[in-house]
From TrEMBL:
Signal peptide from the UniProt entry: none
UniProt ANK repeat ranges: 124-156, 262-285
Coiled-coil regions listed in the entry: none
The keyword Chloroplast belongs to this UniProt entry's keyword annotation: no
Species whose genome carries this gene: Eucalyptus grandis
Top-level taxonomic group: Eukaryota
Transmembrane listed as a keyword: no
Designated name of the protein: Uncharacterized protein
Alphabetic keyword roster: ANK repeat
Pfam families with a match to the protein in the record: Ank_2
Length: 350
């Protein structure tokens, strides 16, 4: 890119004699400054957007060769809209959207081009909304969502939805904006089969409980969402988050029925996490007797796992419950007592 072109875009001086004469000179030589790029592939519109030169952007896009720049990606396939969202510049995003609408109406009589630009992905399949969410740019997120309410359902190459990213970063207001706009199941998606609800529970975020409530209150009670490696309820039980457990089952009572890929219930998870208070709380629940006797894929009940983990407190809690069947054997034909004694024997032999 010619140094004077870069300087003009950076300073925003579109009408400077130097820049105008440069346009003329380049045109006379059969070149086009609109095709010039920096070493990382940024065109003149990228540069102007990086420096939030809104007037320059408007003037540039009124030139006959200007509109195609809206769609041009740099070396990362970031469009100028991606750059504006990264910068958190509401004004730049607004003018870019307005200009693509204007030109699409003039050329095609419709504004579908605007939606296409909003959803245009970069190399990592990130949209402008992904960038705005990562930066916590609330006003930009609001603007993008208002223009395309279903934009929240677009996931990137890592299977991260904008809602997942907002939850992971604790952006409660942005979460609410997306939740109110998008009803697509994909809007909750995260990597490796996780959802926004999982990360809300698992991450030590400020306002974590509020995030969980927000997600549950927006009709997330779909049993399929919970059927992953570890359900949200399993994670809450393992970590000992009683309030979160209560909130989940309040909105989704059938969550108690969820068994993970290892055949384990939330009670198994609480035992493995060593969360005695949660174990007590689950045992106090009505109509959950079946959870106490549930065996995982190895045939282990919660009592078996407590014995395996040598957790004396939980062993005592479970053993005192009259509903416990102490004689249930696992796939190795061992009772919980057999496991406990085997551990003692191993310690003695060692």
């Amino acid at each position: 890119m010619h140094p004077n072109v870069y300087r003009a875009a950076k300073s925003g001086d579109f009408q400077s004699p130097e820049f105008q004469s440069l346009i003329t000179a380049i045109s006379e030589n059969g070149e086009d400054l609109f095709h010039q790029t920096t070493p990382n592939g940024n065109n003149i519109l990228h540069v102007a957007t990086q420096h939030e030169q809104v007037n320059f952007i408007e003037n540039l896009l009124q030139h006959p060769s200007g509109p195609p720049l809206l769609w041009q990606g740099n070396s990362k396939e970031d469009t100028p809209l991606h750059i504006a969202a990264t910068m958190g510049s509401w004004k730049s995003v607004r003018v870019l959207i307005n200009m693509v609408k204007l030109h699409s109406i003039v050329e095609n009589g419709q504004v579908d081009a605007c939606r296409e630009l909003l959803r245009k992905p970069n190399l990592h399949k990130d949209t402008a909304l992904h960038y705005a969410v990562r930066g916590g740019h609330e006003s930009v997120v609001k603007l993008l969502i208002e223009e395309d309410p279903q934009l929240g359902g677009v996931t990137n190459a890592a299977d991260e939805s904008p809602l997942y990213l907002a939850t992971d970063r604790g952006h409660l207001y942005i979460m609410d904006l997306i939740l109110r706009a998008s009803v697509l199941p994909s809007s909750h998606k995260g990597p490796k089969g996780l959802t926004a609800l999982h990360v809300a529970i698992h991450r030590p975020l400020l306002g974590k409980f509020k995030a969980v409530q927000q997600l549950l209150q927006h009709d997330i009670c779909d049993i399929q969402i919970f059927r992953v490696i570890q359900s949200a309820l399993h994670i809450a039980a393992f970590l000992g988050y009683s309030l979160v457990i209560d909130e989940i089952v309040k909105f989704c009572p059938s969550a108690w029925d969820i068994i993970n890929i290892n055949g384990q219930t939330a009670l198994h998870a609480a035992v493995m996490g060593g969360e005695a208070d949660v174990v007590k709380d689950i045992l106090r629940k009505l109509n959950l007797e079946y959870l106490i006797k549930e065996q995982d894929t190895d045939g282990n009940t919660a009592l078996h796992l407590a014995a395996l983990h040598k957790d004396y407190t939980i062993i005592d809690i479970l053993a005192r419950d009259k509903r416990i069947d102490r004689f249930i054997t696992n796939n190795d034909h061992m009772t919980a007592l057999d496991i406990f004694l085997a551990h003692d024997e191993e310690c003695f032999l060692a």
